[in-house]
């Protein structure tokens, strides 16, 4: 039974990280119907920034929780700035173009950012310091739930609550929901749509950076390529839950996390990534709108 | 003045943005930090100039589409005339053909080998062009079909000793089969979902090849794949390459012929109609699934056939040759060339394969430039290097009436 719980919490941890990334995909898709292919790269840049900040400040004498918070805050700041800039360069000039154009531009952006980090940093795996301390009170549960996993899950829950509050109760959240429903109508009622789109990119990128730093310190190593697979899986999760729907993204991420965790635990670990993609293909075939998504009929 | 201030701000913004990644490099084991301040200067100057060019191009693009449309068409007409007027293009084609025939006779094996690679990408680009350019289906897993062809030849040869010429049609057929198998369930999906599923499919194929050791020999791959034979004649290294070269030239010519014929056929026009407007197309009585499936299967066929040739050329294959980056390169060939344009795709394939070969120092930055040019191309010239000319059929009154 211990093995089951170990896999269960492993899956929950994975799912939490996927959820943090998937939210960025789903929010952007909800507002401008674009698969932001470069989102995985923003997550990767978040992890790298976290590593660099942690490295520099640990030499200055910081350690433990303060170092984690510092790395996280700066990583979020930078990833948001990247998200904002990416939107301005690669997507904004293409508004109103065909659907294919922004998607290709997004793929180009993703390749560019990967190689930018590769050239600016390194192509090797870099060890990431363990920023999350081992808690004493977690001692009895160490077999199936580590301290860093606990921190990841709790952080994700907190972030989700904050995001829900932001979207439900603030002015910018209201503007976001209005833009997602009908861009033109929102514009007519005085919503600054450009500003809303920028904010969506900023928030989504910030969430991805939180995920990036947390998973990097949990796993202990990063390289320039981590964003590709993580982004793909988080996108799978977003589609699974119904793209454009925020609770859907969280639900999809958890399902994906558990599927991967149990499948690798009980079947085979060689095909870890294959399970995720098979799940994606199956979902899209049988329920293209996702679990919580509504299928819309296109009207002419 | 305003321009300079704006560019300065952009430059400062980019310096801020790239600061941690470009300047600092930490070594967490040795606990050392390396500061590379010079990079900041490069970024600052680069971003300053870049913002100027960016704004200039954006303004020109806006002006081009709004005010002087006639001026643009005159310029367009010149490049188009070379492509459409028989008096202009026939001599060009003749020169290219003669050049292609004598190329391996005057160049050494190394050069010919590079040219074979370039020609492989030309055919791959033309094959993907059917799917992306003509039918408008974004396929990000094209390399999977290429892998199917390559592994078909390697494995059939290894287990059953089948020769190159036997496997070439089998590889093409297997490519088509996989195309249909994948296409059948997923072609109902909208464009962007299709892109992700094909991407996932490409990754699945690669991961299976990497992990299923009993079947594909895993990451170590398969070596000693025989080169193509010619009625049992034995070749030395140089003439084998030459032979492969002529084979590829023939393949390219055949592909061009087929794609050209397809483009103006009933099915080709159906593809383009589907690309432009799916709903209107269905209303005109075109079977959407069947039409998409033919495009998908035909594209995959070329990839399968070229995969066989690729295996024969390198005589060694492993899953590392079939990564997503390969798909991305083929896609950027199609996009840079101008979706749907045969000449454009060929030109782009040569540029993307030959440039990095001849500029070795530059090859490190190859993918960086690929990515950037994909973005820039979409922003400033979505129609590609050479845009596809729409064939117009005008009703002409016969002169004697």
Oligomer: heterodimer
Provide mean pLDDT of chain A, rounded. 85
Write down how many β-strands of chain A occur, each being a DSSP E stretch of 2 or more residues.
Answer: 2
Radius of gyration of chain B: 24 Å
Can you put this structure into words, describing what you see?
The complex is a heterodimer of chains A (300) and B (401). Chain A is 73% helix and 1% strand. By secondary structure, chain A is an all-alpha fold. In chain A, helix 2 (39-59) runs antiparallel to helix 3. The mean pLDDT of chain A is 85. By secondary structure, chain B is an all-alpha fold. Chain B has helices spanning 2-23, 37-66, 69-84, 86-106, 109-134, 142-160, 164-186, 191-211, 213-216, 237-263, 266-276, 278-283, 288-314, 324-337, 342-358, 366-380; strands spanning 24-27, 32-35. In chain B, strands 1-2 form a two-stranded antiparallel ribbon. In chain B, helix 3 packs across helix 4 (86-106). Chain B starts with a helix and ends in a 21-residue tail after the last helix. The mean pLDDT of chain B is 82. The chains are: A mainly alpha (300), B mainly alpha (401). Chains A and B meet through helix 2, helix 3, helix 4, strand 1 and helix 9 of A and helix 1, strand 1, helix 8, helix 14 and helix 16 of B.
Key descriptive features of the protein:
heterodimer; A: 300 residues; mainly alpha; ABC transporter involved in vitamin B12 uptake, BtuC; two-stranded antiparallel sheet; 11 helices; 1% strand; B: 401 residues; 2 domains; 2 strands; 75% helix; globular
Question: TL;DR of this structure?
Answer:
The complex is a heterodimer of chains A (300) and B (401). Chain A is mainly alpha-helical and 300 residues long.
Ordered list of secondary-structure elements with their pairings:
The complex is a heterodimer of chains A (300) and B (401).
Chain A (H helix, E strand, L loop, with lengths): L1 H31 L6 H21 L4 H28 L8 H21 L5 E2 L19 H23 L1 H11 L1 H6 L4 H27 L1 E2 L3 H16 L4 H21 L5 H15 L14
Helix pairs in contact in A: 1-5, 1-8, 1-9, 1-10, 2-3, 2-4, 2-8, 2-9, 3-8, 5-6, 5-8, 6-8, 9-10, 9-11, 10-11
Chain B lengths: L1 H22 E4 L4 E4 L1 H30 L2 H16 L1 H21 L2 H26 L7 H19 L3 H23 L4 H21 L1 H4 L20 H27 L2 H11 L1 H6 L4 H27 L9 H14 L4 H17 L7 H15 L21
